[in-house]
Amino acid sequence: MRLRGNVAIVTGGAQGIGKATALKFAREGAKVVVCDLNADAVASTVEECRAAGGEALGFRVDVTSRASLDEMVEAVRGKYGRIDTLVNNAGITRDARLQKMTDSQFEEVIDVNLRAVFYAAQAVVDTMIEGGGGVILNASSVVGIYGNYGQTNYAATKFGVIGFTKTWSRELGPKGIRVNAVAPGFIDTPILSTVPQDVLQQMRDKVPLRRLGKPEEIADIYAFLASNEASYINGAVIEVSGGLTL
Known about the structure:
Layout: E1 7-11, H1 16-27, E2 31-36, H2 39-51, E3 55-60, H3 66-80, E4 85-88, H4 103-130, E5 134-139, H5 143-146, H6 152-172, E6 177-184, H7 197-206, H8 215-226, E7 237-240
Parallel strand pairs: 1-2, 1-4, 2-3, 4-5, 5-6, 6-7
Helix pairs in contact: 1-2, 1-8, 3-4, 4-6
């Protein structure tokens, strides 16, 4: 198991890519800390991680709150004495064209997708340094590389996450902390549940592999990047899109 003993925090860890990542890490031997706003979903995911043979803790966390993140980190430090990996996965969409986007739509996405990534990294970094190193993995998107119609707010955050990744990899690399980003394409998660079937088919048709990605396919990349197999990968943005942008 490539992550045996690794203490890993996954934000947005109770659904979609976050849940798949928590389960993958648990199967790989990590001590998984599942963080999400939905307490019931957290409890369910923790049980699934344990059923998969892993060790897991769950916390209801509001990632836009420094206090909520700090409380969770202190509890993890108290339990395990260290933090090895942070997967900054939590994210939302509030789509609208530029002329129609409200202040609320803009600010909510900025708060969850960008500001919270900054807060979470600040919350864990001192513990990682004390422990001699660690890994921070940030969720970007192909939208954060190429932009997308109707997603001014989302694109700005995912571009920003890449900026975080490049900057932190320079700042924290000398301290033994690797920082990388993953840029998924169209992934079949609950976030697509309201998308009409004809639109989903159009999305599939844009991908050379002619299908949507699976959450587990992103989780596999996170597990690799968290492991020692990726020990010389730092500051990278890995696109996982089935060739969408070719």
